[in-house]
Specification:
Elements: H1 5-14, H2 17-28, E1 34-38, H3 45-54, E2 59-61, E3 68-71, H4 76-80, H5 83-86, E4 90-92, H6 95-102, E5 111-114, H7 121-130, E6 135-140, H8 143-155, E7 161-165, E8 180-186, H9 208-223, E9 229-239, H10 248-257, E10 261-263, E11 273-274, E12 279-280, E13 283-284, E14 293-295, E15 304-311
Parallel strand pairs: 5-6, 5-8, 6-7, 8-9
Antiparallel strand pairs: 1-3, 1-4, 2-3, 9-15, 10-15, 11-14, 12-13, 14-15
Helix pairs in contact: 6-7, 9-10
């Protein structure tokens, strides 16, 4: 079974030939480099790097993130017997996955909402950056994922997070208006970064109707969430997909319909960060979409999209 030709046609509308070759290389690889985040609720950089050095495990620090490292040649098997892994002093989390939280500008006193917390990496990242101070509300609508989230948070010594279970489009029914300083909207998406041409199970589901379905879900969640954000508060929206409908088009939707939101400049000096797009097929997006970030699927990163908004008025 081959990946739908429509996918490649769409890719050519988004990226340069050189970038597409980078993506194809990732789609054909059998493994991506392992990346970790140091869990500062249980450990610190000195302890973790000392262990990695003792085990002759080479690593590269990611300068634009807090406590993030790529293990250059390590495998999961190399980590299994390490206490820092067994006791959750390090946490496996991709580089791209760590980027959205970085733009929340977390500080003491923040009340934070993680709208769709599964698969829970970002919730524990937020807790670690806040050092278990103040309050995080982490939501999901699936009981099994909720149990996994609670287990993960407990193992990482996260104590400032309240886990709730509800449909993300109905958070307004149980949470207070204008009550959150920061909201992370890392929403369900078509997850095109997962495509691996060596495994048809990773792409058999791909179709444009699935992209449209996710776009509609994302819109529905966001339009029912924005009113929970305080004036002056920050909303970070992100996906782990390539599709413009779930990325730039969502930004266009928010800018067109919520005048209380102002898009903010963000930037990263990283070789896999690429330009946004302002047009896809016959649709032209708001020019302010150029303040978004795209991250290429690669041996180091997932495909990711990130944008930051500030609420400037009621």
């Amino acid at each position: 079974m081959e990946l739908n030709k429509k996918f490649w046609q769409r890719l050519e509308k988004i990226y340069s030939t050189f970038d597409i070759e980078t993506i194809k290389k990732w789609f054909n690889t059998k493994k991506r480099k392992i990346s970790i985040r140091i869990n500062t609720l249980q450990s610190n950089e000195g302890e973790v790097l000392k262990i990695l050095d003792e085990k002759w495990l080479k690593y590269t620090k990611i300068d634009f993130l807090q406590n993030a490292y790529i293990l250059d040649d390590a495998t999961l098997k190399d980590l299994w017997d390490l206490d820092i892994f067994a006791y959750w002093k390090i946490y496996l989390q991709s580089i791209a996955s760590q980027i959205p939280v970085n733009f929340l500008d977390l500080k003491s006193g923040d009340k934070v909402l993680d709208i769709t917390a599964s698969p829970w990496s970002k919730t524990s990242q937020i807790a670690s950056m806040l050092q278990n101070t103040w309050e995080i509300i982490a939501n999901d609508n699936n009981a099994i994922r909720i149990d996994k989230l609670k287990f993960t948070l407990e193992r990482q010594w996260v104590t400032n997070t309240k886990v709730i279970k509800t449909d993300a489009t109905k958070l307004w029914e149980i949470l207070e208006e204008n009550s959150f300083d920061k909201i992370l909207a890392d929403l369900p998406c078509s997850a095109e970064w997962r495509i691996n041409l060596n495994n048809e199970k990773s792409y058999w589901f791909w179709c444009e109707s699935n992209i449209k379905k996710n776009y509609l879900i994302q819109k529905d969640i966001l339009k029912n969430t924005i009113w929970l954000l305080k004036v002056g508060g920050i909303l970070v929206y992100s996906t782990c997909t390539i599709a413009p409908e779930e990325n730039e088009w969502i930004v266009h939707f928010l800018l067109s319909n919520f005048k209380e939101l102002e898009i903010e400049d963000i930037s990263l000096d990283y070789k896999y960060i690429k330009n946004w797009i302002t047009r896809f097929w016959d649709i032209i997006y708001n020019k302010k979409v150029d303040k978004s970030l795209r991250c290429l699927p690669s041996e180091e990163t997932e495909g990711f999209f990130v944008v930051k908004f500030r609420k400037i008025t009621h």
